[in-house]
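Explain this one:

_____
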Amino acid sequence: TIRASVAAWAKTLANEIGPFGITVNNVLPGSTYTSRLQALMQQNTQASGQSVDEVEKHIKNAIPLKRIGQPEEIANVVAFLASPAASYVSGVSIPVDGGKTPSI
């Protein structure tokens, strides 16, 4: 998948430029409640014949936390990674998706 490719590229880049004190990380957002998601849900209603509420419920049911993320939740992770608190974090891809990404 594209996410796997981006993760591998970030890890390679982190290894290459880490000696210069530069960190490289990925934030992998899941479904996030934005105008784009609302437009996609609306398009899905036309294709599926379901209501927007039904489409939204389907999305939520596929997420272990059973809700759609808020933009601020993604931004909080980005802010952390850009802060001095994350100065020793490099070469990682962090899913911010309510637990949807299958991984160990």
